[in-house]
Amino acid sequence: MNLSLLAGTILVVVGIAAGLLQLWFAPWSAETFLKIEMTIGGLLVIVVVIWFAVREHKEDEATRSGDRLD
Description:
mainly alpha, single chain, elongated
């Protein structure tokens, strides 16, 4: 399994779990919960951007080396 896919999936599950935990038990203040969710969302964006950049780099290298001729 791709490391980026695994990290993204974990972040989504953690975000949903934190949301459900806040909904049912409210362990954090609204401000703290917002900060937690924004941090998880920011990390998810970073994972997606890095995954996209790595994928594009690999495809570019394959195209330049002649391994992938379309």
